[in-house]
Design a protein that fits this description.
The protein is an alpha/beta fold. The chain is about 45% helix and about 15% strand. It is globular and about 45 Å long. The chain binds NADP nicotinamide-adenine-dinucleotide phosphate (NAP).
Length: about 240
């Protein structure tokens, strides 16, 4: 069966590195974006120039109809999705009392609702095949708490719960469900923290550097591979030792 990967939020950052890596692992890759069509198209062109299959799909993962339409279009283009990487996510720092109801709803709709929408969209074909791999994206703040991260941390703790429960439910069908829990990774998401805070975070990282998107892509590549065929329900922390040590 053709290997087809859908990576949500893969126009930039960690998702982009994952899509690039998975294309090199032999997947036809669906590159999802919400706003930066230019970046998604750029990645698709780069992969095409390397002789690899990819296509860009715009959809807000929080929008169920848009996700269903994206998955239908992806299946029409490449066939059933065999690997779903739920990567799209948003984050902003707020003191708890400053979190608006709108932001609270939006971050849950994207970070958790996005996974719900995409999993339900791809699952019927995976169940039919009794095969498939799902990799969700948690965070070190999905395992620990952090000041000014209550909403984000709550969504990522929920992603951990979703991953473990769904792994248990789907194990009899041989569909594996795992998550990566990145530490501080050098992407647009963390740049608003500023140079000083980022330098402080590097100091707190035993391996003494920010993570690279490629570090997370390597972990996803492993979890998706046959080498991980006996691994399900795991949260693979990739954080340079930030919270693990
Ligand atoms: P990023 O640099 O901000 O990139 C976000 C990506 O997600 C972009 O491709 C963006 O698309 C897409 N996106 C955002 N909202 C979307 C939506 N509603 N529907 C579809 N796509 C959407 O973020 P990142 O740092 O790569 O983070 C990726 C994932 O890793 C997130 O789940 C994040 O929580 C998690 N994570 C990151 C870190 C870190 O330190 N960076 C640490 C732990 C966990 P456009 O380009 O179209 O805007």
């Amino acid at each position: 069966m053709k290997k087809v990967a859908l990576v949500t939020g893969s126009s930039r950052g960690i998702g982009r590195a994952e899509a690039y890596r998975l294309a090199h692992d032999g997947y036809a890759v669906c590159v999802n974006y919400i706003r930066r069509k230019d970046k998604a198209d750029e990645l698709v062109s780069l992969l095409a120039s390397e002789g690899l299959e990819a296509m860009a799909f715009g959809a807000d993962v929080a929008d169920r109809d848009a996700v269903d339409a994206m998955v239908r279009a992806a299946e029409d283009a490449f066939g059933p999705v065999t690997l779903l990487v739920n990567n799209a996510g948003i984050a902003r720092q707020f003191q708890f009392q400053d979190i608006t109801p709108e932001y609270w709803k939006r971050i849950f709709d994207v970070n958790l609702g996005g996974a719900y929408n995409t999993i339900q969209a791809v699952l019927p074909r995976m169940l039919h095949e009794h095969a498939g791999v799902i990799v969700n994206t948690a965070s070190i703040w999905g395992l620990h708490g952090a000041s000014c991260e209550a909403a984000y941390s709550a969504t990522k703790h929920a992603v951990v719960g979703l991953t473990k429960s769904l792994a248990a439910e789907l194990a009899p069908t041989h569909i594996r469900v795992n998550a990566v829990a990145p530490g501080v990774i050098d992407t647009d998401m963390v740049r608003p923290l500023g140079e000083e805070t980022l330098a402080e975070l590097v100091k707190r990282t035993p391996l003494d550097r920010l993570g690279r998107p490629e570090d997370i892509a390597a972990a996803v590549s492993f979890l998706a591979s046959e080498q991980a065929s006996f691994i399900t329900g795991q949260i693979l922390t990739c954080d340079g030792g930030f919270v693990s040590l």
